Amino acid sequence: MKKILVVDNHPMMLKFMSNLLEKKGHQVLTAPDGLSALDILKTHIPDVIFVDLIMPNISGDKLCRIIRSKPELRDVFLVILSAIAVEDELNLSDYKADACIAKGPFNKMAEHIFTVLEKIDDLQSEGLLREILGREQLYGRQITKELLELKNHYEATLNNISEGILELTPELKIVYANPAAISIIGIPEESLLSRDFTKLFLEKHQDMLNYLTDNFKGRKKMVIHEGPFEINNNQVIINIIPIKDDEYNPILVILKNVTLQKQMEAQLQHAQRMEAIGTLAAGVAHEINNPISGIIGYAEILRDCYHQQSPDIDIPKRIIKEADRIADIVKNLLSFARDRQEEKSPAHIEDILSSSLGLIEKRLLKDGIQLSVDISNPLPEINVRSHEIQQVFLNILNNAHYGLNQNSLKFGGKNFLRIKSEMADVEGRNYIRTTFYDSGPGIPLNILNKICDPFFSTKPPGKGTGLGLSISHGIINNHEGRLLFETVEGEYTKVIVDLPVNTDG
Amino acid sequence: MLKNKFERLELKEDEYIELVHLFVLTSRSDINKLQSAINSNDTEKVSMIAHSLKGAAVNLGLEEFFELAKIIEEKARDGQLEKTAETAYIFQNKLDGIADIINS
User: Fold this and answer.
1) What gap in Å lies between CA A403 and CA A278, rounded to an integer?
2) Which of A74, A410, A428, B67 has the highest CB neighbour count under 10 A?
């Protein structure tokens, strides 16, 4: 007695197979399409599966591949049952099937089915059957071939378009996915088919998708949702098209990947915001500068009125000190805002880096931070305002130092800062890329897009002005370079500075 | 007329009648779909359905139905939907005929 599953969309074929096999004492389950077959296979593991090739809701070839991808079904004996099989010069190993029986008159089919079933037990030791039984009962060969060509033609089209295309049952189970959809979703076809479509998305999107798909049930209306919906780190626009037909009423879903487009929009927005802030900062700085000079001037007069030994002389001195601090901040603000047209000159990244490091190296070592510098020699010169780049590097180094010190309580001794300069080719342009890789606490994702904003700081009041990275960002932009961050919270931060190589000679 | 058919297929009479019954039921709904496909000029779908009708007819050794389904499939492929509709009509009448036989 064998447990046998028969999958075919014709009720007559299912009836014939179950009569035939039950008479021989086998236990028979039937399914009208690939999707229902997969449902049955969740709870039953048959010894033999007969599969028709052309079926709605997950075709036979896909069903075969899904069956073979599941470890618990790997040893099931798989028999293809189809007229198409004979025409397609079918390669059984493509379908990972063990045998194939051509559809024909029932007496012939019965004969072949019994041949296969008898052979199964011998085959376990001898290897696979891999043959097509019943080729002699061919009919309408030419036309079937044309049908197949048509199918292949449509498949070729679907395989090559850039939009992801999914077919869903009205219950929103996936029964078809083209290669673009598979790559956007990032789940292999074998485990994607028969899944619930909405479950692919984050919980926050699921309600919306359920609403969208509920909304048009029974209506012949297309829905486009700009979302964007997040899936597998991609952002997609979703287009849902219900297909009205007499039987299955499938739903077509088109996924358009807009990740790059959204990234560029975000970059543009950021650039515009920075520019607006720059203009504002320049205005404010200018307005503050004048009264500050006044304050400092009057405080100096006040100071000069006091006797040098007077205990009160400290007060005007403090006023001057604090006002100087304001003046410094304003100066920094101006350097962020102003597009300074100071001359650039050729310089070596190594020299700039070592002058920045010279200012902080001792402190890093004192705090037990393992420092390594790797400069792949010889790197070409870059055309820069050296003191500005030095300022950027110093800033990054200071941030890394601060972060690592936050960390040191937790993982004492494991703190490192690795600096590396090398050539990088970005969109056909040569850059020198300097990476500052520290094992600090990382940058939380929710603030990552704010860290370059002026006055944004994570440091406690008085420890930082929130201007360091915004100034650095401005400087690197003025050098036509790029300032990038790669970080995993709790693990590391990589700050990457790309500066264009001096191509003028 | 049916007697030699079930003997040729090595089936018992009641089994054969049950299968023919399912054939009639499925084919009737297929013919309905075929007609709506003809109305919407969907030749691909027409020939797909005819192909499936043809396969079922072969299973049961019903040559007349096989020949008719083959004509439907070929004519649909040539775009002669008028001819297809005529043949589908004949197919449907024959279905009624065979339904009467198995019901009696």
Assistant:
1) 27
2) B67
Q: Which residue range forms the structural domain that includes residue B85?
A: 64-104
* Contact assessment for residue A225 and residue A212, using Cβ atoms and an 8 Å cutoff: yes
Average pLDDT over residues A431-454: 87
Whole-angstrom CA distances from A33 to A75, A116, A199, A221 are 21, 23, 22, 27
| pTM of the model as a whole | 0.58
* Residue B24 within a domain: no
Q: Which residues on A lie below 8 Å from B55 (Cβ)? A: 10, 83, 103
Q: Name the residue type at position A191.
A: S
Q: How many beta-carbon pairs below 8 A join chains A and B? A: 73
Distance CA A64, CA A163 (A): 26
Residues of chain B predicted below pLDDT 70: 1-3
Contact list in B for residue A11 (CB cut-off 8 A) is 22, 25-26
pLDDT per residue as tens digits for the range A113-124: 888 888 777 665
d(CA A164, nearest CA chain B) in Å: 24
In the predicted model, what is the mean pLDDT of residues A255-276?
81
| Residue B49 belongs to some domain of the structure | no
Domain count, chain B: 1
CB contact under 8 A, A139 and B18: no
Which residue of A8, A9, A16, A20 is the best one to mutate when testing the B interface, meaning the one whose CB has the most B CBs within 10 A? A16
Mutate to test the interface with B, among A22, A24, A106 (most CBs of B within 10 A): A106
The HSE-up count of residue B42 (CA atoms within 13 Å, CB side) is 13
CB contact under 8 A, B70 and A140: yes
* pLDDT > 70 in chain A, percent: 86
How does the average pLDDT of chain A come out, rounded?
A: 82
Residue B52 lies in a domain: no
B77 within domain boundaries: yes
